[in-house]
Structures are given as structure tokens and as C-alpha cells.
Fold these 3 entries.
Entry 1:
Amino acid sequence: MSAGLQRLLRPRSIAVIGGGVWCENVIRQCLSFGFDGDIWPVHPNREKIAGVPAVRTISDLPRAPDAAFVGINRHATLGAVADLADLGAGGAVCFASGFLESEGEDGDGANLQEHLLQAARDMTLIGPNCYGYINALDGALLWPDQHGAQKVDSGVAIITQSSNIAINLTMQRRGLPLAYVVTAGNQAQTGLADIGAALLQDERVTALGLHIEGIGDIRAMENLASIARDLGKPVVALKVGNSDQARAATVSHTASLAGSAAGAEALLKRIGIVQVSTLPEMAEALKLLHVSGPLASNRIASLSCSGGEASLMADLAAPCGVIFPPLSAPQKKRLRKALGPMVSLANPLDYHTYIWGDSAAMKAAFGAMMSGDVALGVVVADFPRDDRCDPAGWDCVIEAVIAAKKAGGKPMAITASLPENMPEGVAARLIENGIVPLCGLSEALTAARVGAECGQEQPAPTRPVLLPRTPHRTVTLLEGDAKAALAAAGVWVPKARRGVSIQEIAAVLQGMTYPVVLKGEGIAHKTEAGAVVLELGDAEQVLSAASDMPADSFLVEEMITGCLCELLIGVVLDPAHGYVLTLGAGG
């Protein structure tokens, strides 16, 4: 963790600049969470903020704070940040909006953000246009609002550009232990990747989740992936901006350039960051990674006491990217002994309710399922409402899963088909015993797929990604020129010759092998324009085709015969992600 981010994210002293309700909330959150460092409010007129004595100016602070929450208007923020930098503060969170993200509505936004960076100089800056962070490990919260986090000894870190999504994630009731929740806002100076690299170096952080609007600094993202690979800590990303509307929203929200969905997917895959599609998927994947770590494979054993649940699990296997391997003969023998003659043996397994409450039989059946070539066992169990029912009857499932994990040593999970049917108390009990509490069937299996992808060896890319650039002008090459350039780079291309008249074509045909293809040059979509003719077997056919073709110059190529398939290869310059290579069927 860099020195500036170390002080900012794990502070022993916090300055709160401003006296409004947002700043009062920051102080109250730190106090209620048990922060045992110094808290110094700064306000020109008020004696106390949230009951804590205030100083009048930043220069009146007893010493340089490790972290500062700047909760004043955007214009005053510039001066406060400059004063903090002069004092030698570790870093600051800038709460105010109205910077680059507002450039479309306020022409001064970009200029203000540039001045903010100049004011900060070398001091670490998170934001602007962000809520700050929750450090639930040390009780340090530069956080101006409500949240649902609780103090933990270890857990996952999540970084997002959206403060509201951050709030929502803290309110989850899924049992996900949150060590850090950080909002990055506009990423004017410090990006998601910089923050992520710092958080991963905290030994108490087990995995990292990224909610990404725009990747931004590609080199920083490559560095994050490298650090994660070296530390053996998985990173899961939810990249938004896949539709035109979403891409427009990211620009207005945090001034982020979303780029293409294909470009983002390719970049993240190249550097070893696994993707999910929804917030619930990210929460469940991070939970599995926190409890069990990366998985050895995507081979899963599924158990439920319902044929309906077994069918649902089976249907979800392919869409979620997991495999339910068939049972081996030794497994079937053990299962038959535990379940009796009336249960159909398969994976997913419907073990019926014959053995419900029979602890020995349930443990034997669960253990038999886990004895196969699987990396994770998933038991489907929805727990009853404790306000209307007695959940004690479900203890047998928990005990059997714990026993099966201890006996086989393989990761195991209990998933509720409906998220609300996995009570927080049950989730906490499961985590204490090394069992993953998952919410939702598709989310559970997606988490398994993510765990398996994270478990694959991730070799470092041999070369860095080619960075995007802004082309000065667009040039459409003639096909002959383009293929000549490819040939110069070592790519094999068919023998070709050019001609601008019937007479030149007749001359260039000497020495060529038939059949040939005639193409009209300078036409992008040749087929639609009648500017390509295939399988010409002699000079007469070529000259006849040329006389009928709407072109001023021509390319004659020897035709490749005996093809098995056609492959389209293209390279696109994605402004957010660099050069993207596309492979597809077609010509």
C-alpha cells in the first residue's frame, strides 16, 4: 500500500472539514463504530460538531491528519485541499460534486477538477463526487450517510464509482463480510485500480470486488491484476456500460468513458480478472471466495430433498458455466446404503425426505456425494421464517454439511433458492464453520463458476496491452495496399496483381494460376456493388468481368480452393480499452 493511501485508508487521525449534516454524520459514524484515533472537526464558527470540539481553520489542527473528509461546496473544496496538502495530510476524500461529471451542464466543471488536482499536488485524493469509504476492520469511516456494515476481523473489499450502490451493498443481508467499501467518484487522481492495489495488500482482505463504469488507466489495472496474482487474491469485476444508454449514463455520472462491452471483457480476461453480470452475482462470488477461496474446478455436486430443486439446478448448469459430473459406481453403492432402494441416484441428487432428521444417514449421503471428482458441494436448503416457524428442524442439514466437509476436506455450501430464506444468523453460523452460505440458485452456481475461473493458473501476460490513442485522421486503404502491409508483417496472403485498365489486367494475368478472383478497388462492400467475381477460369472470363464491373482499378488474386471454412479477423481501436482483436466465422 502506498504511503499516502496507507494513511488515508487506515488512519489514526481524521479531520472533518465542514459543519453540515454530512460532516456530522462522518463523525457520528466513526464514534459509533468505535474508532479509537483522533477526530478533528474544522469549522470557522461552530465550537463543536456532533459533540466533538472543533478548530477554526485547517492550520489550527494539532498536526497533519492522516485522512480528511472535505464536505464543503466545490469552490471552497479547492482551498481546503490546498491547505491540507500544505500541512502534509495523508490524503483527502472530496465529497462535493459539480466537477468533470457536470461538464455537459456546467462548462466550468472540467476546469474546477483540473484546479483541484493542482491544489492536491502530491497528496492522495479520492473523488471528487464521492461518499468516501468504510474501513470496517479499524472502525475508520469517512462516510457521510447511513450504512449497514459491521466491524469484522477480515473480509472482502468492494470499490465502486457509485456512492448509492456502495450504500446498497452495505445493507445486504447475505452474510457477506465487508472489510472495506470504497467509492471512487470521478477518479480525478486516484482510480479504482490504485485503490484496489492498496486494499489487496492489507492481509485482512481476502478478495476484491470492482463495480466499474470506466476502466480508465489501463496500466494501473494491469498493475492491480499483477499484485492480485502475486498475492493469490482473486478479483471479481462487474463492468457496466454495455448498452448505449448505460454508456451515456456513465459519462454524466462520473465522467467515465465506458468503451465497448467486448473490449472491456477482453481486457479483463486478458489480465485475469473474472467478470460477473449483476450485483447479487458479485456478492455471492465474493462470499464463496472469502470462505473457501478459489476452486479446483467447476465440477459440482448438488443435493436437495426436492425433485423440483434438483431439476432447477440441472437446468442452470450450462447457463451458469458449471458441470454436474455423473456418479461413480462407488458413490452409488454408498448412496444406496444411505438412502435405500426408492431414491433415484443422480447428480443433482434428490435425496427425498426419507432420511430427514436422521443425522447418520444424512451425513453418509452427503459424504458419498462429496467423494466423487467434484470441487464444491452445494446443498439446497431454504430456511423457515423464525417469526412464524420453528427453524430447529433444519439443524440436521447444517450438521450434515459440516460433517461432510470435515470428512472430505472439500468446500461445501448451502444455498437457499430464495435469498430471503437464508437468514443472517444462519449465514454467520455457516461461515464460522467454513461453509459458504449462498443466496439464489443461479447466483450460487455463478459463484462456483467464478471460483473455478479464479482457481485456474493465471500466467502473467507476456506483453502489456497496447494503449488506446486518438487517431488524427481516418484512412481507408485499398485492399491491395492493406494485404501488402500484412505480407510485410509476415502474414501469408494470396498472390495478387493490380491493373487500372483492360490492357493492364491482360498483362498482369501472365504467370498467374487459375482460378482467380477479380475485385473492384475503392469499394468497401464489394458484393453488394457487384465488384467481386469468383472462380474465373481464364483470361477471357477475367476481362469480360472487368468490363462489366463499376470500378476504375482492379485487383486480381489467385483463388484459394479446397477451403474448410472462412474466418474473419479484425482489429478495432476501442477508445477505452485499446486494440481489440475479433475472430469470427465468415468472409
Entry 2:
Amino acid sequence: MKPVTSVICISVLIVGFLLCAGCASYTTPEINIVPTITQVNASPDTLTLTYDVILDITNTGSNNAYDVAVMVLVSTPTDLPEYRFIHENIEVGTIEKKQSTSVKTQLALQMTPDNYSLLSRGERKAEVEAKITSMSSNIMG
């Protein structure tokens, strides 16, 4: 092998190694969601309670999060009879690294008469969950 060819091959190997090392150290965004729920309306005719739900979403990671979508779920407490829930999928969009955003939605939860009585009087509270359903850490998707 000629010396020039050897130098080129060694250079290509070094560059390839450095590129792979960079990929291995890449981290995905870290998203934290803090949901809060407030009852805003009670309709005894339809046995429905309406809630404002606010999601405070923070990207604590070191990379941007693109095309973030979350699902929020409001439910009766799981230990009550006749468990009921309602959910909504929300497109959040881009959350830059070390940044926060808030999303607000309103959900109406219909339930049985017994559960309505407990929740509308404040003896029990509705539960809220929020989870990421999709996210990309690469702007190319």
C-alpha cells in the first residue's frame, strides 16, 4: 500500500470514530409534566362535572423536543364503583431545551349518580394524568 493511501485510510477511520463517539453521547430531551385540575362547573341534570386542566410542561434536557404531543386523562378515583374517564390528545409543538410551556384545556366528565354526589360535594376529587404520546428529538423527524 502506498503511504498516501495509508494516511487517507487512517484519517477516515479517525473521523468515523469521532462521529460515532458524538452519536453515542447524544441525549434525548427530558420532559416533565405537572398537571393541575380545577372543577369549574357541575351539571346535576347530566351528572357531569367540568374541569379546567393546566399542564405545565418543562424540557429539562439538553436538546430541543420537536412535535411534542401529550394525552391528558381525567377520571373518577379508581377505587370508586363505575370508574369513568375522559381523555384528550393535545399537540404541543416544539419545546426548546431548558424551556417551559403551559397548555390549558377543559374536559367534561360524566358519571354515575353516586360518584357525581361524592365528587360534586368535594368529598372525593377527580384524578388527572398526563403522558407524552409522541416526541422527536431530531428536527428531521
Entry 3:
Amino acid sequence: MPAYNLLLDFQVAPTILETSENGKATSNQEMHNVVRSLGLQGPVSAVTFQDGGTFAVFHNEGGSHATLRVYPQGLVTLDVQQWVEEGGEPKITEESLKDVEQKFRRVLSSKKSKRLPFIKRGMRLDPYITTTSEQIVEYDFDRVVYEENSPYQNIKILHSPQYGNLLLLDDDQNLAESDAAYTYAMTGNGREDFMNKDVLILGGGDGGILYHLLQQNPKFVTMLEIDQMVIDAATKYLRGICHDCFDSLSGDNYLVRVEDCVPVLEQYTQDGKTFDYVINDLTDIPISQEPTEDTCDLPQKILDLSLKVLKKTGKYWTHGANTNNVPQKFEEQLKHLLPPVDFLKEVIAIPSYHELWAFYTIWKAS
């Protein structure tokens, strides 16, 4: 049962808004008449600020309302909100708002305006995901495929006609069936030969990396995933990603261990066990945190342990956001690792992410 919001902005020459009191009153009245053409009454409240700006509120008996804000510096905004029954159509339509936009442009002599699509608030199926750079993306989700709370997180799989089934953990986007580019990037983009190699996957509950590796005849793949419910959901609802690799959690050349990776890595370190490749596909993005005590101890610990179980000729892959100086901060961390490492950064467009994603190949310096 959503409320629809529509936002209109008009860039105006400040001189248009700085006329005499009579001229300003005429301009406000003309704008009010345009708002009323949407079937709204008012203003039921109007305020004039010390800088000469104004604010007015309109409404109708159906519960729709609009706010008109005039900034004397040269900006006029109109925000319209209306209630729309789930599956219904808005009474104030896109067409009527296009007409209002043109009328405002004439009244204000505005040469530049912006009308955003309806923002849908309170929908049963929330279409919005926020990217790591705080940008809002509206998806075409048409149904909830699966949703449950595990002991560790909320697990949600939504269907998108464009991207297929998409996995979210605690409402953070993980992977969609369209995102093979992610799996390829996390395994070296075709540059590596996994035949007869020992591989360790940290996380990877969607099964994409495990399935991809098993097609290349590795010696053995060990996967450490803490959440059995993610595996179960992927097995049933993310077949386009994991295919049949979770139908059994063990095979001749692979084993899925459902447990926390840190104690296992510590045990591997004590036992002297090493791998040709370590792939960090944990849900908590390991390179996206500020280097603070609270947020970075665990990712740093996992990185240190992973390098300890990596063979001298081995490679380690990880990933994270490519925004807000995150890669630069992570690379600064890498420069201070002992023993020293070299690395390769690749920036890849993942279809359902709507933002570029950074992938790192890390190896011990010779």
C-alpha cells in the first residue's frame, strides 16, 4: 500500500523572484493556481521567510498533498504525494504532472526543470537498493521468491525480469543470476589454470564460484560458509548460479564445510596446510571498511590468515566497492603487509550492481 512521491525542480533567474511585493504576490498566485489544477485545495498553510522565500501546503479530501517551496536564490520545488492502492494507478498521473511542469515553466520563465519518476514508499515489495556510493537504484522486482531469518542474517531472494533471481543478505545486494562477470573476476578472468590445484573459498554461499571451479578439474576445493540457510536457499532458488553443486555438500574433489572460516583458517595455519588459491567471497565486503578498530580487525585478520595458508606461488582474490576512496585505503593496507605482496586491481561492471566493482589479485612478492 504505497505512497507515491513526485519531485519537480525549476531553475529560475533570481530576478524573477525578487520583484516588488505586488509582482511577487502575482507570481505566487499564478503558481498556486497551477498546483490547484492537480485537484488540490489551498494553500492551507503558507509561510514567508526572512530571506523572502515562501512555503505553501496544498491538499485534497482524498489525502493527497503538495508542498511548494520558493527559494529566492533561484530554485522552486514542488513535491506531490498521494496514496495509491497496491496494484492501482495514481489519480494524479504522470501526464497531468507533465502539464503542470510546462505551466510552471511558463509562469516562472524557467528554461530548466527536472521531473523525477514517482518514488514509491511503503510498497509490499520494495524496489529500491542503495549502492555503496549512496545512490538509489530502482529495480524491476516482481515477486519475493524467498525470505527467512537465519541465526546470522536476513536472507532474501527477489525475482527481476531483467536480472533473474537476486540474493540480498540483510538487504545488501550479493549476486543475481545475471552476474557471471562477478564469478569470472573472482577467479582471475580466465587467466588461471585450476586443474590439479587446491582451492579454498571463504564464504561463497550462492555457489557460483564453487560451480565455476568444479568445471575446471581442480585437485580439491574446500568451501567455508557459515550459514546453512543461505546454501539451502541457493540450492532451491539460485540454480542459475550454483546449478547442481550444492545437491551434495561433498564430492570426490570438493567439500563444503558449514562453519566460521576464522577458526578453520587458524587451524590450517597451525597444521601448515596451504592452498594454491584462496578466494575471499565473504558477505562482509572485505575492502570497504574504514581502517578502524571496530570494523577492520576481522577483515584484516582474515587477510593475514589467508596469506599464511597461501602457497608461495599462490594467489588470493578479494573484492569490494570502487567508490569513496575505498580502493586507495585498501591498497595502502596492502603496502604495509609483511611479508610484502604485489597486487593487480581490475574494475568490472557487474550487471545488477549498477556500479563498478573492484577485484584484487594478490600474491606474495618474490
